[in-house]
Amino acid sequence: MAAPEQQSTIATDQSVQPIQLRVVSYNLREHTANGELAALAEASDADVLCVQECDSNDLAPSIGGLSLAASTRTNRLGLAIYKRDDRFEVQDFSIHSLQKSLHDRVLAPAHERLIAMHLRDTEADAEVVVASFHASPLTATNSLRRKQIEAAHQFLRDLAKDVPAIMVGDFNYPWFQTNLRRKIEQHGFALSLSDQPTYLRYRKFTGHFDFATSVGLHIAGVETLPAGISDHRPILVRAHYEHPGDTGAVTTVEAPAA
């Protein structure tokens, strides 16, 4: 008698780790921490590095294996994005001004407060929008900053509709973040704070100034990196793309109240 057909004992590996996207954000404090960028990119193993308060005319074309993809040109306190050339192809990018505070009108530190980039991730065979953002300072109202954040999110969606997106930077929003989270979630994004405060200069202003908002990505963690000479500490966001079978919910990371 012929033996019954044997069933395969080789199981499909369901534990394949998703490809990670590592995004670093750093406010350079009026460009004073520019010399730290190469070491930061290497130490964090960043795939994308977003900076705020930079001098666009004094940025290196490449740092730590990353190349300068785009930067603002009209700001005294500029924005820029570096990306890994062997992984990403630039599809498009856009630079935007946002609603101005009185501080912006009088001192004109930053005409453009958002730079967004649509990237093709060849390693993950996916598309993603990454943005560097800098909200108006604490002299402005939280209401105005919320309007800036909402407008920035809309610009991200306009750049590449339905593509996963992450926006990092200096949000200047250390208090009343429960209300901010609710507003952000109303327009489809999620708020992720880091594991430690990011601002160091004034004790009474210590808190989470630098964080991330995202859509279509799972945020595995947001780490506050060691301090440099800036008054802000850099943050590292570890994210991965949602799988087709996922529910679409974006995982966020809570941090202790500031």
Can you walk me through this structure?
With 258 residues, this protein is α+β, with helices and mostly antiparallel strands. The chain has 4 helices and 13 strands. It has helices at 37-44, 102-107, 142-159, 177-186; strands spanning 20-27, 48-54, 62-63, 66-71, 78-84, 88-96, 114-121, 126-134, 165-170, 190-192, 210-215, 217-224, 235-241. The strands form 2 sheets. The protein has a 7-stranded mixed beta sheet with strand order 3-4-5-2-1-13-12. The chain has a 6-stranded mixed beta sheet with strand order 6-7-8-9-11-10. The longest helix has 18 residues, at 142-159. It starts with 19 loop residues before the first strand and ends in a 17-residue tail after the last strand.
| Cα gyration radius (Å) | 20 Å
Number of strands: 13
H/I helix tally: 4
- Span between N and C termini? 75 Å
Please state the average pLDDT score.
86
Given the helix and strand composition, which structural class is it? alpha+beta
Percentage of helical residues? 10-25%
Strand content: 25-35%
Secondary structure elements and pairings:
Blueprint: E1 20-27, H1 37-44, E2 48-54, E3 62-63, E4 66-71, E5 78-84, E6 88-96, H2 102-107, E7 114-121, E8 126-134, H3 142-159, E9 165-170, H4 177-186, E10 190-192, E11 210-215, E12 217-224, E13 235-241
